[in-house]
Amino acid sequence: MAIIRGRDRRIGAGIFTASMADIVFLLIVFFVITYNVEVDRTQVVLPKTMIRHNIPKEAAFVSIDKAGVVRVSSGKEMSLPVGSDEEVQSFAANVVAANPYKEFVIKADKGVKYEAFDHVLDALKQAKVRVIYLLSEQKTVNDTQ
Amino acid sequence: MNIKKKNVESEIFTGSMADISFLLIIYFMLTSVMSATRGLDFELPKDSSQTPEIKQEDSIDVHIMANGALQVDGKQMSIDEVLPYIKKVLKQNPDKPVILRTDPNATYGDMVNVFDLLRQAPEKIGMPIKTISIPTQREIQNVWALFGVH
Question: What is the pLDDT of residue B33?
Answer without folding.
Answer: 63
